[in-house]
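Q: Hi! Curious about what Adenosine monophosphate-protein transferase SoFic looks like structurally. Here's the sequence.
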Amino acid sequence: MPAAQTSIRAGVFLPQPTGYRAFIPQPLPPDDPPLEVDGEMQVLQERAATALGRLDAQAGHLPNPDRFVAAFVRKEAVLSSQIEGTQASLDDLLEYESAPARVPAGDATDVVRYVAAMNHGLERLAGGFPLTLRLIREMHAVLLAEGRGSEKTPGEFRRSQNWIGDAGCTLNEARYVPPPPAEMHDALGNLERFLHTPDPVPLLIRCALAHAQFETIHPFLDGNGRTGRLLITFQLCHAGVLSRPLLYLSLFFKTHRAEYYRRLNDVRFAGDWEGWVKFFLRGVADVARRATETAQAILALRTEDDAAVRAAMPRSAANGLRALELAFDRPYLTARAVQEETGFSQPTAKSLLDRLAEAGVLEDRPARSRGRVYVYERYLALLREGTEPLPN
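A: Let's find out. The predicted structure is below.
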């Protein structure tokens, strides 16, 4: 291997036989010099940890926190996919899930696969499976099982060189070239050891370091960004810091997309770990605060609509509340879904939804194909923040 042409704190750029330079990352944590946890970073870390604790506590007050988690999983799937260029909205995903024939595949399929990958990883962690490279490959296999990238060896680390740059650029024109396959496997092994080695550095800072390192290694031919963002929440759940998988940073990364990519590049090209970590911690605090406010608003909405259902249909309030509970899981709700979930007859299910619409709880809309769909619009309004697709 040729001698290093450039050396920086986070790794070295090594020239390759065909002329391009690939980046070989140093193992974590940074040690030349070590990460400087200055006063500003300490304050940001404490603020982020406090916000995260409040979110975890607030979610526990919800009548069915698992439904809240499921809603945030879907929102994260949309946002993380949009960062990569997907145009599907949250409404596209939810209507697709209510009746797949009603929404074309394409981008919606990409988001559905993200939900499946996230749920697969969470189920494995809940079952005691460790956070390993094997689990990362499993999630990637689910993520790319169909749709965009499905032809790019899902679930397998790459065996060839990849690169990041403008569409159509060559390897020699790339803005950034990750490590070649042999060095990539060494870097992944180092990352896995870092994930499981006790360290006095606070967990949120470790999450920041691990995410940047994963994106720098770029071990898959496609889906690296989405997989790397999944890793953040899985670290927190695996460490027991979150009792439920509630923290998803894609809203912050999407809102500050240019800075997100710039901070990652500043690690690689200038060794600026501190700038990246501080940016990451600001994101944790911001997203946790917003999610806590959303949880509080959902709780208030639930109380208000429970009362509206009891007032509008006193003789069948129990059935109405059961249908309302389903709407928190499926904001695009159909009579067939109510029938399947409750065992009610089709006329009873349809009547319940009609009465919820008359009470102003749901909105009755024509679907994109046959039948009707009942939309829990006020609930969706609380979830939609930031989920508009980015311009092409």
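A: A fun detail: Residues 197 and 284 are 23 Å apart (CA to CA).
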